[in-house]
Amino acid sequence: MMANTVISLRGATKQFGGLVAVDNVSFDVREHEVLGLIGPNGSGKSTTLNLISGALPATDGEISLRGGTITGLPARAIARKGVSRTFQLVRLLPSMNVLENVMAGGVFGHRRRWGQSAERHAMQVLEMIGMADKAKSHVGQLTYIDTKRVELARALSGEPEVLLLDEWLAGLNPTELTEGIDLIHRLRDEGRTIILVEHVMDAIRSLCDNCVVMSSGKKIAEGSTDDVLSDPEVIRAYLGDDDA
Amino acid sequence: MKRADWQNLGWGAALLVVAALLPLTGDGYLISLGVSIAMYTVLATSWALFSGPTHYISLATAAFFGIGTYVMGSGIEYINYWLLLPIAGLIGGVIAALVGLATLRLSGVYFVIFTLGLAEMTRQAVTWYQNQTGHKGTYVLTELTDPHIYWQLLALAALVFLLGWAIGRSKLGFALRIIGDDEDVARHVGINTALSKVALFVVSGATAAIVGAMIAPRYIYIEPATAFTPMLSFQVVIMALLGGTGRLWGPLVGVIPFTLLWEAISSSFLNQTTLLLGLSFLAIVYLLPGGFVGLYDRLRGRAKKRSAMA
Ligand SMILES: Nc1ncnc2c1ncn2[C@@H]1O[C@H](COP(=O)(O)OP(=O)(O)OP(=O)(O)O)[C@@H](O)[C@H]1O
Ligand SMILES: [Mg+2]
Asked: PANTHER family of this UniProt entry (chain B) (predicted)?
């Protein structure tokens, strides 16, 4: 493990009854790195994120954040240590407006603020993602990409050490997709550490420094994005999935 | 504090003063009705502090109320009345904390069943204990009359409203709203969901115990069947839902019409009260989701839309 490693998985395993959804997976994420976690449907990408964020306890293996183990900690403790995430199916707080949704991420998390200062900071995050004008809107009135933006803003407002994005670009139309990729590019340029679970190849190519490829719960490849995407085994895993 | 806060505080204080004048009428029936309304206001408001944001339906009101009644009943011979009120609150709060820690990890359905069972279990335990010691009930003899009890309950109501208002503006209040919206999200933004829920459950448990202690002198002779009547738990739920748990004043708006109606109905149909309770529950859930508060918000939303279009 290198000195600037932020997240490190060693033999992470998750079993659901007889199904091994994540099978002995190890990889490191370094500071300022955008790591793509890719693989066909059902290969265990979301489950891996769930293990890191503490949504699910690992069956085996060790996960650490900046060298300290977080295996077995509850999600709230892991969030406080600086892991933030979005969900594959967007989860906003339906009774609250946009600003409150964003504040929710910055009051109890990694960097905590309250009152005026929490509100100011949430506004800054909303400005950064281009939604300041909708701060008082109810989340039920938002377009799809805006719901995704709000969820991202909530994850950012706790100033996390590492950001886990689970198919944040999925379901966007072509124009929205360009906007979405631009937004994540900005996060990348800010030097954030991100694990990006994604199916959109263009996004992976332009955003990820390195990729880890999963198939049926196992890590089948790892390395720089270009190398990994031209690896015959990776292509086979994807095509096999598509043709079947 | 914002201007609206001062305004609300002013309204609250004015309402309290007017309500406090009721015993001056000297009308025993009115005063006794006032005691009921004040009692249900405290119970339903503190119930909603917990159940409103979390959506957990607690049927433990009767358990905490009964515990408070018995704290007063068994302590009044030895300890000063005014000391017994906080003691009842403390005991109620501790029991609520234990029950909460054990059950609030459970999903909603199990929690409902457990809280209902708690009231029944406590009642059985007290009955068993009394049988062991050869008593059937306990006398609570004090100089306190209905007006005194009424004023005490009003003061407690004011306290509960202030507390609810303070919680609503606190981080704890914000955490509970997030939990109510999506508990998984709450955990992932760093909220200790179990502790937040327990904290509010303790508030409602302690409050119900204090109410029980305040009401005890009115019964004069207390037995498990009167102190732990499960009907109380259901009434509180229905009143809170009728008013609506979305706002602090919601339960109050449910308590007043319900108590008056109940008074009228139960005096003429004594044997059908349980049936009527069930029917009114169904009526509220089907016809008035969100209670009066929900109705008010919907009407206001519609008015806003209309004025926006004009
Ligand atoms: N809570 C759960 N209980 C049981 N099985 C689960 C659970 N969560 C995931 N699985 C199973 O684990 C496997 C991996 O699922 P996972 O959601 O991690 O895949 P994924 O790579 O994120 O797929 P996708 O690209 O479709 O989102 C699947 O077979 C899935 O059915
Ligand atoms: Mg997934």
From this structure: HIGH-AFFINITY BRANCHED-CHAIN AMINO ACID TRANSPORT PROTEIN BRAE, HIGH-AFFINITY BRANCHED-CHAIN AMINO ACID TRANSPORT SYSTEM PERMEASE
Taking CB atoms and an 8 Å limit, are B171 and A107 in contact across chains? yes
Ligand approaching nearest to the C-alpha of A41: 1
Helix (H) and strand (E) counts in chain B: 14, 2
Q: Are residues A193 and A212 in the same domain?
A: yes
- Closest of A86, A91, A97, A87 to residue A122, by C-alpha: A97
How close is the Cα of A174 to the center of ligand 1, in Å? 27
A134 CB under 6 A from ligand 1? Answer: no
What's the CA angle centered on A27, arms A25 and A32, to 5 degrees? 145
Residue of B nearest to A56 (CA): B184
**d(CA B55, ligand 1 centre) in Å:** 29
Is residue A215 in a domain? yes
Residues A166 and A239 in one domain: yes
Beta bridge partners of A197: A37, A166
**Residue A89 domain-assigned (yes or no):** no
Q: Are residues A168 and A228 in the same domain?
A: yes
Tell how far the Cα of A53 is from the centroid of ligand 2, in angstroms.
14
pTM as predicted: 0.89
The DSSP call for residue B143 is: S
Q: Tell whether A87 is covered by a domain.
A: no
Shortest distance between the Cα of B190 and any Cα of chain A, in A, equals 4
Query: Is residue A22 domain-shared with residue A43, that is, in the same domain?
Result: yes
DSSP labels, A106-117 = HHSSSS---THH
Q: Specify whether A165 is located in the same domain as A66.
A: yes
Looking at residue A22, which CATH number applies to its domain?
3.40.50.300
| Residues A103 and A151 both lie in one domain | yes
Residue that terminates a domain, selected from A124, A158, A192: A158
Distance from CA of A213 to the nearest CA of B (A): 26
Torsion angles phi and psi, residue A178, rounded to 5: -60, -45
Does residue A55 sit at the B interface (CB-CB below 8 Å)? yes
User: Which numbered atom of ligand 1 lies nearest the CA of A199?
Assistant: 25
For every one of its 244 residues, what pLDDT tens digit does chain A have, with 9 covering 90 and above?
A: 566 999 999 999 999 999 999 999 999 999 999 999 999 999 999 999 999 999 999 999 999 999 999 999 999 999 999 999 999 999 999 999 999 999 999 999 899 999 999 999 999 999 999 999 999 999 999 999 999 999 999 999 999 999 999 999 998 999 999 999 999 999 999 999 999 999 998 899 999 999 999 999 999 999 999 999 998 888 888 876 554 4
Residues A169 and A232 reside in one and the same domain: yes
A167 Cβ contact partners less than 8 Å away, ≥ 6 residues apart: A88, A197, A198, A199
Same domain? A200 vs A233: yes
Spatial contact of A201 and A172, defined as CB atoms under 8 Å apart? no
Q: How many domains, in total, are found in chain A?
A: 2
Range of the domain at A226: 5-82+161-243
Among the candidates A141, A158, A175, a domain finishes at: A158
